[in-house]
Structure formats: structure tokens, C-alpha cells
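Need (Fe-S)-binding protein's 3D structure for a figure. Predict it.
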Amino acid sequence: MNIGLFIPCYVDQFYPGAAIATLQLLEKLGVNVKYPKNQTCCGQPMANSGYEHLNGDCNELFIKNFEQFDYVVAPSGSCVLHVKEHLHSSKHPQEASVISNKVYELSSFLTDVLKVESLPAKFPHKVGVHQSCHGQRGLHLSQMSELVADPFSKPGTLLNMVEGIEIVPLNRIDECCGFGGTFCVAEEAVSAKMGQDRVADHLIHGAEYITGVDMSCLMHMEGILHRRGSKVKVLHLAEILNAG
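Structure prediction for (Fe-S)-binding protein:
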């Protein structure tokens, strides 16, 4: 299969290690991965701020970059959800519909498409798992705790394949970190307090690392950790699955 690697702009600019780990992990698993170099922002920040009607050029470029691939894979739940729900085009409506149905967040692609059952990864550390809202409630990567249903977690299933890892328990397994994209700018104080609460839950349980499927959430928590002088680090899920 031919995979188009979709790297969100904030990952490209601030966390290229997450993008590189995603590429290396997919190649280890035997798939043919290509990175369209002309890709830019998918348009999520504009849409979240009420300006989706100005996203036409972003949509057309996304279609042009990724229409030739069997699947599109990205290390970002929020950007994948945006493309799935909002990619559209008056010029190429059929192509937009096809692409929106074949774009996958990384952990979902590994579990649902590749059916990964083992990984040659090693990470002997205590890790707290942050279940981002877009991934959990939008892409259904894990079960919501308020539902009376069997629990599941696609990122958790993959992490449990990693040798030596210890997943630390949390008091509130699916609490929002407060980032919320443009929410953290419009509601800075609320966002910061939510992030502090989320970080505290990981710290009191002895996490050495915090991981998740969205570097945006992890970036928010990393800033709080830095201001606290904490030695706890954040890593994208792909970086742990590719470790060792």
C-alpha cells in the first residue's frame, strides 16, 4: 500500500521528532511512505475560529497532495478529525469525500488497518497516557469513562506491546488538558488551570513521561511542566512505539 504522510504544521515546526518517528515506525512495519513536500496547514485553526469559509485553498492543496495515496496517516488526532469532518471542495467534491474517508490518525491506522500485534520497541520508563478529546470523542480511539461500556484504548493497546514500559494509573483517565486549539488563547486562565490539574494527576502517580496522540495537547502540558521546573518530559506516541 502507498501511504501519504500528513504532518501538521505545528509538528513540522516545533516537534519534528514526532514526524520522523512516525515515518520510521511505518517503514519498520513494511509500508511504502511518501511525504508530499508542498503540504501546509490543513485549515483547522481557521475553522475553529469561525473562518472555515476561507479554507478553500487549504482544502484544494490537501486534495492535490494526497489524492493519489491509498491511505493518509498523521500523528495528530485533531487535524485528522478536522479533515474527516470538514474537507470539502466545490471543484473536486468526489476527491474530497474519498480522501476524508481514508485519512487516519496513527494509532488507529496501526490497529485498524495494519492490525499490528507486536512491536520491536523498548521503553523502560513510567508513562502517563493523555487521551486527547479530539482523539477520544471525535475519532473514538478510546472509550469515554462516563459510558457504561467495555473500556478500550487503541494507543494503550500499542503501548502495552512496548517492552519495559509501565503505564501509570490516573485518577481521571480522560480529563481535558485545557489546550483546545484557539481556546487556550481566548480563555487563557481557564486553559492554564485545566492544564495544571491534568499535569498534577500525572505527577502524583510518578510519571516520568507523558504521551498521547496529539502534540498540541502535549505542548500545552510541556509548557506547564517547564514552568514548574519539572523533569517530566512529553513524547508523542510514535516516539515511544519507535524507541529502542
